[in-house]
Request: fold
Amino acid sequence: MSDPVPPPFVTVTVQTIPADTVMAAVGDPTRRRILVALADGKPRRCTDLKSVSGKRFDATLKHVVALRNAGLIVGQDDPTDKRRQIYTLSPALKVGDTPMGRMLDFGYGLLRL
Reply:
């Protein structure tokens, strides 16, 4: 009888967004509103986020780009219109329901939604 073979060792890399980057991004109320809107898990275009932010399209796009550059949201081509992007929360962020309400978990801090 042969010795059992141990399972393969798998290395998993977890991306943590630097705290200074997160605090700078969520320090702006417009960016917080965009994060709250995306926390429901539905992908949205910048035109959809415009109504949430309360800003013009160009101002909303500036905030979306800042969140994307910070690594808090990700963009991908819109399957219905390849000229546009749809945005979702970064996989590094977790949204959870707690007895105190919905929370956005950055890995080292929580933001109550």
Summary: The helical segments are 19-26, 29-38, 46-53, 57-70. The longest helix spans residues 57-70. The chain has a mean pLDDT of 87.
